[in-house]
Amino acid sequence: MVKIKSDAFEIRDYLRADLFPHFLCPGCGHGIALRAMLWAIDELKIEKDRLAIVSGIGCSGRLGAYIDANTFHVTHGRPLAFATGMALARPDLEILVITGDGDCLAIGGNHLIHACRRNLKMTCVMLNNEVYGMTGGQVSPTTTDSRLTTTTPLGNTEPAFDACKLAEAAGAGLVGREVTLQTPSLKNLIKEGLTHPGFAFIEVISDCTEIFGRKNELGSSPEMILRQKGAMRPDSYGNVVDRPFRPNVFETGVLVRNDRPEYAASYRRHVIAARKQTA
Ligand code: SF4
């Protein structure tokens, strides 16, 4: 059979086939998010040698291992700390941090606010599925009201973090949110992040079908993903959503663009000026 040559995105070109089969549960939203990230990288023609993926612990953190590039699987909550050092030492690299809601907002919350404050050139993609999936389904900082988890067997009573508002308040250069349902829009948002000359924070509304979905009786994977429509724009599709995935309607797309000076470049200028003074 003659293979027709095409410029179309082929995800296998970016994956480490020797690590397959992958660990993701069937229908997990993280697989869709991975596809969107690699699609964005492909469209921007970022060379693999120039691409550095840093990920933490959790189902989100394990995605990095499958990407055929420079990948760093680091300690829980610390991907932004590792990426900070990398951005200062290797400004030639394109840095993509992959993290989850627990990794980024609980254990790594401190690193997130300082990464936003410094505005270092990197893109942080936080996959929000409302739960610590890999470690057994515990409550996370984004678990919404009344949801059942292994540590909230009577229903969650803690208020959930709005990660985008937190990133905006801490000074992130670009803040955006998208759902996995809209994969082309998610890919475009990640491209915006990767081309932004500062810190880009992107929240991806993902689904943990196996642990969170099953415990909360949210239905099959397609049902969970389609439910994102209702939470995103409840009126524009004319759908009646009887049990929205998120109780509040949330905005998607680029939410904030803030052209502040990028920290590593400012730091290098400062060092050069200081050296000239002492020469
Ligand atoms: S436990 Fe949840 S988040 Fe982890 S792979 Fe399975 S469905 Fe995805």
Question: TL;DR?
Answer:
This protein has 279 residues and is of the alpha/beta class. Helices cover 35% and strands 16% of the residues.
The profile of the biggest β sheet is: 7 strands, mixed
Straight-line distance between termini:
68 Å
Strand order of the largest sheet: 2-1-3-4-8-7-9
In total, the number of strands is 9
* Name of the CATH superfamily: Thiamin diphosphate (ThDP)-binding fold, Pyr/PP domains
Reading the helices and strands in chain order gives: HEEHEHHEEEHEHEHHEH
Stretches where pLDDT falls below 50 for ≥5 residues? 234-245
User: Which range best describes the helical content: under 10%, 10-25%, 25-40%, 40-55%, 55-70% or over 70%?
Assistant: 25-40%
* CATH-defined fold name: Rossmann fold
**Given the structure, what is the number of helices?**
9
Strand content: 15-25%
CATH class designation: Alpha Beta
Name the structural class: alpha/beta
Structure ligands: iron/sulfur cluster
Q: What is the CA-based Rg, rounded?
A: 19 Å
Q: Return the domain count.
A: 1
Outline, from the CA principal axes?
Answer: globular
CATH architecture: 3-Layer(aba) Sandwich
Summarize model confidence as the mean pLDDT.
91
